[in-house]
Amino acid sequence: MVVSSLAHLFPAFLALSVYSGDRMIAGVFAFSGQVCHQEYTSRYSFLSSPDTGSSGYKHRHHRPLFASSSSGQRTSGGGATPKRSSREEELSGLASSLNIDVPKVKELLAKQRRKSGISPEKARRIDWLLNGRGLPKEDKVKEDQRVAKVATKAAASNSPEKNSKPAAQERGRSTRARPRRPAAVAKQEEDRQAQVKKRHDAALKDPSLLSNVDFSSRVDIHHSSKRALTEIMGFTSMTEIQARTYAAALSGKDVLGRARTGTGKTLAFLLPAIEGVLRSREYQPGLNIGVLVISNTRELAIQIGDEAEKLLTFHPDMSVQVVYGGTKKSRDETQLRRRMPTILVATPGRLQDLLTTTRIGARKFSEIMSTTPVLVLDETDRLLDMGFRREIDKILTFLPRSNKRQTLLFSATIPDEMRSIMAKTMKEDFIEVDCIGDGAETTHTNVRVKQSHVIIPTLDRYLTSVVDVVQEAAKDDEGRNKIVVFFPTARMVSYFADLFNEVAGTPVMELHSKKTQSYRNRVSKTFRSAANGILFTSDVSARGVDYPDVTHVIQVGMPESREQYIHRLGRTGRAGKAGKGWLVLGPFESQFLGELKSIDVQKDMRLADLVNGPPSTEAEDILDKTVGRVRAGDKKLTQSGERAYQAFLGYYLSQMKRMKMRKKDDLVRIANEISSLMGFHEAPSMTKRMVGKMGLKGVAGLVIREPSDEHHGHHEHSNGRRAGNNMKRQRRRRD
C-alpha cells in the first residue's frame, strides 16, 4: 500500500480535482493513522479542499481515493509513521492507485503545475515528481521535525501511563470505529433517490410539457451534465423551452426565451450556459467567471444556485456562488478570493456593490467580470418593474460588449421598457424562443389551475372573511393541503401571520422582505420540503420560486398588475398537477376584475356563500379576542396592526387610479374602518413627516402624532416611501 509513502507529500495536492478526457480524478486521502491525520491538518490546513460558495454550495464531487485500515507502520502510541520513498516509487504508486500509466500521471501533474495561484510549496513538490529537482534542505528538516513532533505528541496522548482510559471513553463516547457509510448518509442517499423519482414521475404526468427529445440522445451535451440530469435531478426528457433554447443557444447566438411558469426555465438557460463555458476560449477556470446570472430576488437566486449545484455535480473543475443583499459583503469577497466560481448568481444591488468596490488580490472585481462570456437575465420584465433599470445599466458597463459575449434573456412579457434593454444587451440577430405564443402580452394561465374569485360584500367582514377563506382552503378536499396566501405588502403579511399564529392558533409561516435573510432561507426550505402547510407571503414568492405540490394559491387584495396575478398563480399547478387559485377582493377593489377579462376567473359560488353569510363562530371568536388584546395593550398585535395600517395606505394610494377612486379621503376612511376591526379606538397615528411624504397632507381622518412623539415612529418612515414619485423602487421595498 502506497499510503504511508504519500502521506507526508501529497494529501493537499490530491484534494484538488482534475478533469481529463473521460476520467475524473478526485483524490482525498482517508487515513486511519493518527500521525497522518494530524500531519495533514497541521501541515496542509491552508491548502484545504475547495471552498464553498457564499450560500453554502459545497462540492460533492470529491471521493476518497485511498482508504486503508493500516496507513503506515504503527507506533507504540497508536500513530503511523510516514515513510519516505523515491520519486519513481511515488509515481508508480500513484499510477497503480489511479489505474493509469506513469506518463498520464505526469501529464496530470503538469496540468496542475500550470495553474495560476499554486503555492510555492506545492509547486516544489510537483517539480520534484516531474523532473527530480530536490526539495530545499530546510524543507526536509522542517518536515522531519514536524512529523517527529506530531508522532511524539500522539504517542504521549495515548500513553497507558498518562491515560488509564482512552480519551473517547473518558468523554463518555463509544470507541467503536465509525462505519464508512453511517445510517445518516444512507438515509440522505435514500431521500435523494426518492426525490429524483418524484421529479421524474411528476414530469411524466404532464406530457404536454415534454418534447420528444431525450437528454441521452443529445450528443452535444457533456456526459458529466447528462449524468447529473439523470442521476441527480431525475430528468430523462427535455421540456419544450429546454429543447428549443438549447438548440438556439448552442449556435452561439443570443436568445430571448419566453415560457410559462413551471416548465423548466431555469434548466433551459443553465444547461446551454454551462456548455458554452466548456467550449469558450475566454473562460479560464480560477481566473474569471464563466456565467453571470442576474436574478430579481434573493429567493429566486438561491433556487437557481441549487439547480446549478446539482447540474455541476460531476463537473469537478466548476463551481457556483450566490451573492445577494442582506448578508455580509466580506463573506462574499472571501469566497471569491478562495475560489473564483464558474457560475455567479447575483441580485442587482449586491452585484453592483461588488463591481464598484471589491478587489480580488491585485485585480479589481470589475476587471474579472469584463471577460465573462455568458450573461443571463432571468425574469427581466420583473427586474425592470421592481426598479432595477439603473442598476442593470450600470452593471452592463462592466461586462464585455454585446458582440463579445452571449446573452440569454428570459421574460414572460415584453414591455416597451424592455426593448431598450434588449437593444443594449443583445445582438441584432438574436433568436426568440416563444413557448407562450401570445404575442407581446401575457394572457396565458395554467389550464390545470381552476381559478375563481370572490368579493367581500362589506368592510365589516374584511378580517373575518380572510380567516374563513383561509380555513376553508385548509380543509378543502379532505384537508392536508399546501397553501400559499399572497398579501399586497410585507406589513400586511406580518399582521395576518400574527393574527393566525397568536390569536387563531393556526400555525402559518410568513415570508417577506422585513425578515432577515437567514429567516427567509429557513422558511423557504421548510415550506419547500413540507407535505402540507400554510405560507403567508408578499411578492417575493410570486415569480420563479418553486414550492412543490402547492394545492391552493389565495390572493388577498388586488395585485399590482395583471401580470403579477398570473405569476402568483403559477405557484400551483406545477409539474402536471392540478391546483386552485382563489382571488379575494375587498368591496373597494372590484374594478380589478376588468383587468382579467381575457382570463376565465369565474365567481366562486361556494366562497360567495361563505363571505356573504354571517362569519363563522370561530372567525367571530378570533376577531373578538384580537380586539380585546389590542385594547388591553398587547404590544405585538398593536405594533403589527399599526404598521399594517400605514402599509395599507401606502400601497392603495398607488392603486387609486386602477380602483377608480378619486378622493384620498375615501381611502383613509376605508383604512380607518379596517383599523377599528383590528381593535384600535382611533386610527393609528402617523408623524407629520410621514403624512407629507405619502401626499396625505390635509386629508381628513388622519391622526397626526405630536412633534415630541415623532421619534417613536422613526421605524415607520420607510412605509411612507411607497407613495413617492419613483413607483418602481417602492415596489422593491414593499416586497
TrEMBL record:
Residues 246-432 form the Helicase ATP-binding domain. Residues 1-15 form the signal peptide. Keywords: ATP-binding, Helicase, Hydrolase, Nucleotide-binding, RNA-binding, Signal. PROSITE patterns: HELICASE_ATP_BIND_1, HELICASE_CTER. Residues 51-95, 139-203, 709-735 are annotated as: Disordered. One of its GO terms (molecular function) is RNA binding. Its EC number is 3.6.4.13. SUPFAM superfamilies: P-loop containing nucleoside triphosphate hydrolases (SSF52540). It catalyses: ATP + H2O = ADP + phosphate + H(+). InterPro entries: DEAD/DEAH_box_helicase_dom (IPR011545), Helicase_ATP-bd (IPR014001), Helicase_C-like (IPR001650), P-loop_NTPase (IPR027417). Residues 162-173, 709-719 have a biased composition (Basic and acidic residues). Residues 462-622 form the Helicase C-terminal domain. It is an enzyme of class 3 (hydrolase). The Q motif is unique to and characteristic of the DEAD box family of RNA helicases and controls ATP binding and hydrolysis. RNA helicase. PANTHER family: RNA HELICASE (PTHR24031). Belongs to the DEAD box helicase family. This is ATP-dependent RNA helicase.
